[in-house]
Amino acid sequence: MDNIETLKRELTEAVANAADEAALEAVRVAALGKKGRISQLMKGLGQMSPEERKEQGPVLNALKNDIADAIAARAHALHDAALAARLATEKIDITLPVRPEPAGSIHPVTQVIDEVVAIFADMDFSVAVGPDIETDFYNFTALNIPPEHPARQMHDTFYFHEKADGERPVLRTHTSP
């Protein structure tokens, strides 16, 4: 019984003196591990008489629970101390303005079109700009496309309703404005 009190005092001191989590883990293995001091005493219960087992069993279980609780409390204290130390070094000034969100990026197809336009501009080509909605005359007739040409069919050209002046606007199907 006296050696159990001595063991409890030694293990409690070792837990209290553990400076970091690795040292605490070493104490836990030495006390509660498979070959730990408390585990060896628990294994010795099998060789004791039933009367001794009734006497020693609760004492050893109480010792085991006390040491496990002390280890858990010390681990929590070490974790809190580490967190407090980290927070002390990582101070944030909340009065600083927030970083602006990135605006996004250019769509890959638009990026390729811009690169192709730049390449052709280097070769002295230019981009012709014109209206996207054109009359039937400027889109087909002025370009000498006959009325029966397949490009004038409904499945190749998007026609709008006829205007009051009789012209029928279409979405421009050719690059010539």
Summarize this structure as a short list of keywords or feature phrases.
single chain, 177 residues, mainly alpha, 6 helices, rod-shaped
Outline the structure in words.
The chain contains 6 helices and 2 strands; from the N terminus they run H-H-H-H-H-E-H-E. The chain has 177 residues and is mainly alpha-helical. The chain folds into 2 domains: 2-89; 108-171, no CATH class. The mean pLDDT is 87.
- Helix coverage percent: 40-55%
Terminal CA distance: 105 Å
Structural class by SSE content: mainly alpha
Strand order of the largest sheet: 1-2
Element order: H for helix, E for strand = HHHHHEHE
Assign an overall shape.
Answer: rod-shaped
| Mean model confidence by pLDDT | 87
Rg from Cα: 43 Å
Count up the helices: 6
In short:
With 177 residues, the protein is mainly alpha-helical. The protein has helices at residues 2-17, 21-32, 37-43, 50-89, 108-122, 136-139, and strands at 133-135, 169-171. α1 packs parallel to α4 (50-89) and α2 runs antiparallel to α4.
Chain-wise SSE layout:
Blueprint: H1 2-17, H2 21-32, H3 37-43, H4 50-89, H5 108-122, E1 133-135, H6 136-139, E2 169-171
Antiparallel strand pairs: 1-2
Helix pairs in contact: 1-4, 2-4
